[in-house]
Amino acid sequence: MGKREKSGFWVLAAAACFYPLTWLGKRTYRGVEKLPETGGVLLVMNHVSHLDPPNDAVFVHRNRRVPRFMAKDSLFTVPVFGRILAGSGGIPVYRGSTTAADSLKAAHAALREGKLVLIYPEGTITKDPTGWPMRARTGVARLALENDVPVLPVARWGTNDIWNGYNKKFRPFPRKQVWTVVGDPVDLSEYKERPVTNQVLREVTDLLMTRVRDLLADIRDEPAPTEFFTPASRREAGK
C-alpha cells in the first residue's frame, strides 16, 4: 500500500471524532483497490443516513486518502463540526444563490490540485421510501465532464439501519453490517466529445447514479427500481 496522503491538524481532529462513530457498525469494504493512491478522483455516492459522512470519511482515510466533502453551507456554521469540516478541506455548496457556481469552482480546483472529492449528488438523504437513490442534481456531471480524473461510483448501505434520519430511529444495538463498495471508473469519453447541454448533464448524472444504484442492488441482493424516485418539490421545480 502506498504512502498516506499528507493531512493536518483538522483532518486528525475529524478522524478522532469520526472513527468512534464507525464502531457502531461492522464495516465491510469491497473494491478498495480501485481507489487511486494519488491524484484527483471524484467519488460519487448515495446518501441514506446522517451517519454517512463520518462513515465515508473513515473509509477514505483508511485507504490513505483525505476526503474533501461537498456539503451544504449551513453545516459549516455548526459549532465545532463546522470548523472541522472547513479545516479539513470541505467544500461548501450554496444552493439557490448567486454563489452556487463558486462552490463548483472550489470543487474543480480541488480535483485539479490532485485531491479526492466526495459528492452526494442527491443533495440530501434519499426520500425514496425504500432507500434507493433518488433523482440527483446535475452538478456532479459538470465535475465529471470538466476534469480529467477518475470518476468512481461508490455505494454504501447499513448506516440507515443504525440511524434513520427520517423516522428519527437510532438503533446501535445489535451492531449492524455496513457495506461500502467501490465500482469501476465510469468511461465518459463519449460525452466529453459533445457540447455540455442540459440534456448531456442529465444523461451523465443518471448514468453515474445508475452505476451507484447497481452496486447498491448487489449489496442488497435485490433488483433495483428502473426509475429514480423524484420528490414532489423537485417535480414542481422541474429539476
UniProtKB/TrEMBL annotation:
Phospholipid/glycerol acyltransferase domain boundaries: 41-159
Keywords, sorted A to Z: Acyltransferase, Transferase
Molecular-function GO term, any one: acyltransferase activity
Xref: InterPro entries: Plipid/glycerol_acylTrfase
PANTHER family, A to Z: 1-ACYL-SN-GLYCEROL-3-PHOSPHATE ACYLTRANSFERASE, POSSIBLE ACYLTRANSFERASE
Protein name, entry field: Lysophospholipid acyltransferase family protein
Coiled coil: none
Organism in which the protein naturally occurs: Actinokineospora guangxiensis
Domain of life: Bacteria
Pfam families noted in UniProt: Acyltransferase
